[in-house]
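TL;DR need structure tokens for one chain.
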Amino acid sequence: LGADSDTLASYQVLKAEDLTVSKEVTEENRHGQGSDRLAWFWRINSAEDSQKSDLCSPFLVYRVNWLKAKAQYDHWSEELKLVQHEMCWTVQWFQNQELEWRARADKSIKNGHRAYAEKQASMWAEFAAEGIKSFEGKWSMTS
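>> reply
TL;DR here they are.
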């Protein structure tokens, strides 16, 4: 791109490990955090030499805010996945309860027991149908 040698010396090749969020920022009271280091691009200060970094620099504030926002985004992305799986698990549990009560109804000798088991199976089937209807478009049965 035609950059001078000083600029090329400041910027390095990005590696996958450079793109991870440091535990030092996300877990401020974690034991052993002094051994963690931020990726090289967080230490670059475009206004002055990276060796003479000012702790009150607006660049540092932007970097910390970005890291916090990324950690929060990652947290909520994980929460979304968990809730989607929980929706699926809930419906599957309702369906399993229906099957169990249907099996109990089939094994029942007394009419009263069979009627109760059929009522329970019907109730669980309604729960499953309502869950499928409520969660439509918000979850995936393939999960």
